[in-house]
Design a protein that fits this description.
Strand order of the largest sheet: 2-1-3-11
Number of strands: 12
Shape: globular
Largest sheet: 4 strands, mixed
Radius of gyration: 21 Å
Structural class: alpha/beta
Distance between the termini: 15 Å
Length: 432
C-alpha cells in the first residue's frame, strides 16, 4: 500500500495551519539570508512557505520567533528551504525529505512520523537525547520519536485529536458526554431519534482516531507499554488483535447510519463535515486541537463547543500523532544545527511558541491556558492519559496505514479483510 501521499497532507498541512494562525511580529527579523558571506549558516527544510522578506509575510509564525531567538543567541543565520508541490511536482513532501536527508542536503528537517521511522532506522538522524533542552521533554515525545534507542526528532507542539461536541444539542437531547464505546453508541441512537439523521460528521482522513483510542488504550496506559511494543515488533503479538475492536466499532457506526460511509470515503477534512457542524445540523465531528482555536475551523461557533477524547475502555481518550524536527547525522553544519535545535526546544522558546499558537507544549515545564472548549481534552493529557497515533518505535507505521485500511472498510471491505491487511503489513515489516 502507498501511504506517503496522504501523510504530508494530513500532518504537515495541519502544522502549516497552526503555524500561519498566529500574530505577526513588529519589524520581524529577516530569516532569509540573501548573502551569507562568511556567516555561520544552518539550513532548515520544511513545508513552511517563505515569501519576499520585504513584503508582508503572513506565514511568519510562532516557529520563526524561536528561530530568531536561536539566531540571536548563537550568532548563526537560519536559511529556510521549502517544499512546494510546483517545484517537486509528483513527489510528496515525505519522498523529498527522504531524498534530501540521504544526500545530506540540509541540516534541520521537519519530518512526518513515517519519515522519522525510516530515516531513524537507517541511522541518518542525529541522536538528540544529549541536548540540554531534551531533559525537559514529556515522556510522550520520547516514546513517539525514539528509534533503536535514539531520540531522533522533537516537535515544537503536541497535536491532539478529539471529538468536537455541540453541547447545545446534547443538552437539548439530555445527553451526558460519552466515555465508553457503548455510551457513544447510545448517544448516537438518541440523537437519531431526535432527528439528527447522521450524528457523526466524518471524512476520509480521521476516522482512524476511533480505532487508535480503542486499540491502544491499555497498551499506552496499562503500565506495560515497552513489553507490548516489543511483542508486536517480534511478531509474538499481532496488530490485528489490537485493531479488531476498533474496526468492529466503526462498522457498527456505519451499519446503523451514525456515519455516512459513502460520503466519508470521498470527503476532505473539515471542509466536508464542517459546514453542517457549524450550522448545528451535525452534533459530532472529529478534529485536532488547533481547530478549536482557528476561526476558519471551529474556533468561532454559535453554540457551546466541547472537545473530549474518543471512547475507550479507559474513558475519554485523546489520540496524538507527532511530527518532529530532526538533524541530519551527516549534515554539513551538524553541530550548529544541534545548537539551534537546543534553543528552539528550550522552555523559554517553547513558552513563546505555545502561547502564540495556544497549543500543548512538548516540554513538561511549559503550561499554557487553553480555551474552555479544550479543557476536557487537555485535562486527560495533563493526567498522562492518551494514545499515540504514531510511534517511530513500532516497525509498522501506524497513522497512515490505519487511515488507508479504514478507507477499505468505508468502501465495503469486511472487518476480517481489514485485519488481513494488518497481518500482511506486519509480516512484510518483520520479513523485509
Amino acid at each position: 500500500m502507498r501511504r506517503r501521499s496522504w501523510i504530508s497532507i494530513c500532518l504537515t498541512a495541519l502544522l502549516i495551519l497552526s503555524l500561519t494562525g498566529c500574530g505577526r511580529q513588529e519589524n520581524p527579523k529577516n530569516l532569509i539570508t540573501q548573502d551569507s558571506g562568511n556567516e555561520r549558516v544552518v539550513n532548515l527544510f520544511s513545508p513552511m512557505e517563505k515569501t519576499d522578506p520585504n513584503a508582508e509575510n503572513v506565514a511568519r509564525a510562532a516557529s520563526d520567533l524561536t528561530v530568531a531567538m536561536a539566531e540571536e543567541q548563537l550568532g548563526v543565520s537560519v536559511e529556510y528551504l521549502t517544499y512546494t508541490a510546483e517545484t517537486y511536482q509528483e513527489k510528496t513532501y515525505d519522498d523529498v525529505c527522504l531524498d534530501r536527508v540521504r544526500n545530506n542536503m540540509d541540516d534541520i528537517y521537519l519530518l512526518n512520523p513515517d519519515a522519522i521511522m525510516t530515516l531513524g532506522a537507517e541511522g541518518l538522524l542525529m541522536d538528540l537525547s544529549g541536548l540540554e533542552s531534551a531533559k525537559n521533554l514529556r515522556e510522550i515525545i520520547r516514546a513517539a520519536n525514539t528509534v533503536n534507542g535514539r531520540l531522533v526528532a522533537i516537535p515544537q507542539e503536541v497535536v491532539a485529536y478529539g471529538l468536537f461536541i455541540n453541547m447545545d444539542i446534547f443538552k437539548e437531547c439530555r445527553l451526558e458526554l460519552p466515555s465508553t464505546p457503548e455510551e457513544f453508541l447510545e448517544c448516537c441512537r438518541v440523537l437519531q431519534e431526535h432527528g439528527y439523521e447522521t450524528p457523526v460528521g466524518a471524512n476520509r482522513w480521521w476516522l482512524e482516531t476511533f480505532v487508535f483510542a480503542q486499540a491502544y488504550a491499555d497498551l499506552y496506559n496499562g503500565g506495560n507499554t515497552e513489553a507490548e511494543i516489543e511483542a508486536l515488533n517480534s511478531g509474538e503479538a499481532r496488530y490485528s488483535d489490537y485493531m479488531r475492536d476498533g474496526f468492529e466499532f466503526l462498522k457498527t457506526l456505519m451499519d446503523r447510519g451514525y456515519i455516512d460511509a459513502e460520503k466519508a470515503a470521498v470527503s476532505e477534512a473539515i471542509e466536508a463535515e464542517g459546514p453542517d457542524f457549524k450550522a448545528g445540523k451535525t452534533p459530532i465531528v472529529m478534529a485536532y486541537w488547533g481547530a478549536a482555536n482557528a476561526e476558519t475551523a471551529y474556533g468561532k461557533t454559535d453554540f457551546e463547543l466541547r472537545v473530549i477524547g474518543f471512547p475507550s475502555s479507559r474513558g475519554q481518550m485523546p489520540v496524538i500523532p507527532l511530527t518532529g524536527l530532526a538533524v541530519g547525522a551527516g549534515a554539513e553544519h551538524r553541530e550548529d544545527a544541534a545548537k539551534v535545535m537546543d534553543v528552539m526546544i528550550s522552555d523559554q522558546a517553547l513558552q513563546i511558541y505555545s502561547e502564540t499558537n495556544r497549543v500543548i507544549s512538548p516540554s513538561r515545564n511549559v503550561k499554557v491556558d487553553c480555551t474552555a472548549s479544550l479543557e476536557p481534552l487537555n485535562d486527560r493529557i495533563e493526567e498522562g492519559v492518551y494514545v499515540l497515533g504514531s510511534n517511530a518505535g513500532m516497525k509498522v507505521e501506524q497513522w497512515g496505514n490505519t487511515c488507508l485500511i479504514v478507507r477499505e472498510l468505508l468502501n465495503g471491505a469486511s472487518v476480517d479483510d481489514c485485519m488481513d491487511f494488518f497481518d500482511r503489513l506486519q509480516d512484510a515489516a518483520l520479513n523485509p
